[in-house]
Amino acid sequence: QVQLVESGGGLVQPGGSLRLSCAASGLTFGSYVMGWYRQAPGKQRELVAVISSGGTPNYADSVKGRFTISRENAKNTMYLQMDSLKAEDTAVYYCAARRSGTARYEYWGQGTQVTVSS
To answer: What is the rounded distance in angstroms from the CA atom of residue 20 to the CA atom of residue 114?
Structure first.
């Protein structure tokens, strides 16, 4: 049974930092493309960052230069380092996994809340 478990969310002031983690189990982690999505109240879920099985990252324009996605295949874990946080980054953040070479994310975590507020 595949499980993706996010952690690290919380309340932070504007300009602050948080590091999210996504621990995966039940899959061959190194064969999967991993992504971070977020969904703010009243908005559609959006892709924040994605990292290939080989470690190549890509980012949404809204987070470029502020967020860093990474992965440790030996630990079956993905991370999202979020710096210079803004109020508009407030959302539930989800990690997701899809097999390399496919377009659809097969597995999703339960989400972790990130709130940026003074």
So the answer is: 9
Tell me how far the alpha carbon of residue 102 is from its chain's centroid.
18
Q: What is the pLDDT of residues 9-48, one digit of tens each?
A: 999 999 999 999 999 999 999 999 999 999 999 999 999 9
Closest CA to 10 of 107, 95, 89: 89
How far CA 3 is from CA of 6, 10, 30, 98, in Å, comes to: 10, 21, 15, 13
Q: What 3-state class would DSSP assign to 73?
A: helix
pLDDT tens digits, one per residue of 68-104: 999 999 999 999 999 999 999 999 999 999 999 899 9
Cα–Cα distance, 89 to 35 (Å, whole number): 16
Residues in the chain: 118
The residues with which 98 forms a beta bridge, in sequence order, are: 33
One-letter identity of residue 43: K
- 73 vs 75: CA distance, rounded Å: 5
Q: Which amino acid is at 97?
A: A
